[in-house]
Design a protein that fits this description.
The structure holds two protein chains of two kinds.
Chain A lengths: L1 H20 L6 E5 L2 E5 L7 H8 L21 E2 L1 H14 L2 E5 L3 H4 L7 E3 L12 H7 L3 E3 L2 E3 L5 E5 L7 H12 L6 E4 L2 H7 L10
Chain B lengths: L1 H20 L35 H11 L3 E3 L4 E3 L11 E2 L3 H11 L11 H20 L11 H10 L4 H13 L5 E2 L11 H15 L18 E7 L4 E8 L6 H9 L5 H7 L15 E4 L5
Helix pairs in contact in B: 3-5, 3-7
Chain lengths: 204, 297
């Protein structure tokens, strides 16, 4: 009992410490698979690029808004959480930042070190869905998936006015992906670029 | 204090004994329900439920058959519940048959035809892009298995000069094993792959590519087509002829499209008109009554 209480206090303390050391204004530097990324707040995107970035969605034909919570037990997170996720879990290879937009929308710009998995590709109708799940660390055994070794995911899309990320999360959960391994960055490209955070443009 | 506790304990024991042994329960069988409807003494239909083997299993089975039209295996006595007969269907993808046929003809060296990217190939390409992206981030190598395609099977069979029957056998064996996905409109009501439509469409598209005319819309009447009906529907200003077709065994949506419109391309017209009945073009079942719209001239 005492030990549990002590652990709780320690955890709370470390959370507070982590919150204070988060890069609110300083640059976040991390490396993914040997490549170094820096996220700063001095990104200078042109306004036209920003408006192009936020006006794209494959799941919403008509104007729509995404709900605050994508699915039960999937936390909705903010920019600091994304940066922390990048510099801890993605840095150590235990996590992936997923871009749920279509490749042509993503070509305009994306969050550094993110990986593109368009929402439609995880729909149960895609015959290649299982291959993608396997690449995310799921184990396949006689038609049943085990997600114990699956990597943690943080999903984003164009922004709160689109629903690609929410659709992707719903499909992941339907496939059996555990909700505690999924995070939802609702702000997406819209909030990310508005805050002047770094983006990467496709090198095509 | 101790006396009071003992007294309470004894009282509890007596109550428990009364609950367990029920000395005053008697044989008061319920002969009426609360709505004063007397229970019928239905000794002749009553069936005792035990877990021991019933000696007269066939009588039980007959009673069950009399109650509901169930299928009974008299050998084992297993009674099967009535359910919608649904057959195993081959796996499908959303590749268009016309795209696939085009690629088959192009591969066979037909002049004037360029291969197009089918939906299945596009999906495969996007998947390999995604896997490459994940691999770049995690460093874990993932392999995208080569899959057999219907296109490749048909090309090989046509090159080898196989007969229609043997192509039917080859394609259906591959589809039944689940290794190959087929276009939805080729799935028949009994869960096979309609190779007649497949081959017929190859011939049709080859003829059109060679400069021939598209097949004319056949003249279909209830006299020459089994399962077809025509109803005259009176409307305020005019009257229209509504056509219906009851799905026969072995029909695919592609076959019905060829039957009524001469080409597979009109399957969407049929599908759109029957969306309430068909959840997807491959979920076609024997006995479904489909509306067959007239094409606008």
């Amino acid at each position: 009992m005492k030990r549990t209480a002590l652990a709780c206090i320690l955890m709370a303390f470390s959370t507070v410490c982590a919150a204070e050391t988060l890069p609110v204004t300083a640059n976040a530097v991390f490396s993914v698979n040997g490549q170094e990324f820096t996220i700063s707040r001095v990104s200078t995107l042109e306004q036209t690029t920003i408006s192009a970035l936020i006006q794209s969605s494959s799941t919403c034909k008509a104007p729509c808004l995404s709900p605050m919570t994508a699915a039960p037990n999937v936390p909705t997170l903010g920019e600091l959480d994304v940066i922390e996720f990048l510099s801890t879990q993605v840095d150590s290879g235990d996590g992936l930042l997923i871009d749920a937009r279509l490749p042509e929308d993503r070509a305009l710009g994306y969050i550094p070190a993110s990986v593109n998995i368009p929402a439609a590709t995880l729909a149960p109708t895609n015959p290649y869905r299982n291959e993608i799940l396997l690449a995310l660390g799921a184990q396949h055994y006689e038609g049943v998936f085990s997600f114990t070794d699956a990597i943690s995911l943080m999903v984003y899309d164009s922004g709160p006015a689109t629903q690609d990320a929410a659709a992707l999360i719903v499909d992941l959960l339907a496939a059996g992906y555990p909700p505690e391994k999924i995070g939802y960055y609702r702000g997406g490209m819209q909030v990310w670029t508005t805050l002047g955070l770094s983006t990467t443009a496709a090198t095509r | 204090m101790i006396r009071a506790t003992l007294a309470l304990f004894a009282f509890a024991v007596v109550i428990c004994g009364l609950i367990i042994f029920r000395p005053f329960a008697g044989n008061d069988q319920i002969t009426q329900d609360r709505l004063d409807t007397p229970f019928e003494d239905s000794a002749d239909t009553a069936v005792e439920v035990t877990r021991s083997a019933t000696p007269d299993i066939s009588a039980l089975a007959q009673a069950a058959v009399a109650a509901a039209p169930l299928t009974v295996d008299l050998g084992t006595g297993i009674v099967q519940a009535p359910r919608r007969v649904d057959v195993a269907r081959p796996s499908t993808d959303d590749t268009r048959l016309s795209d696939m046929t085009n690629n088959v003809l192009a591969e066979l060296g037909f002049a004037g035809l360029e291969p197009v990217t089918t939906n299945s190939q596009a999906q495969r390409q996007s998947t390999s892009d995604i896997l490459a992206g994940i691999e770049a981030a995690t460093g874990q190598r993932s392999i995208l298995d080569e899959r057999e395609t219907l296109e490749a099977i048909v090309i090989t069979a046509l090159r080898a000069g196989e007969s229609d029957e043997s192509i039917d056998l080859i394609v259906n064996t591959a589809a039944a094993s689940g290794d190959v996905a087929v276009p939805e409109i080729l799935v028949t009501s009994d869960g096979r792959v309609d190779t007649f439509v497949l081959l017929n469409n190859i011939v049709t598209q080859a003829r059109i590519a060679a400069g021939g005319a598209a097949p004319a819309i056949p003249d279909v009447t209830p006299d020459n087509t089994a399962g077809m009906e025509v109803r005259i529907i009176q409307r305020a200003t005019d009257e229209i002829e509504a056509r219906f077709y009851t799905v026969q065994s072995g029909d695919s949506l592609g076959a019905i499209s060829i039957k009524f419109y001469g080409v597979i391309g009109q399957y969407e017209t049929i599908f759109e008109a029957n969306k309430g009945l068909l959840s997807s073009p491959d979920r076609i079942r024997v006995g479904q009554r489909l509306v067959i719209p007239q094409l606008d001239a």
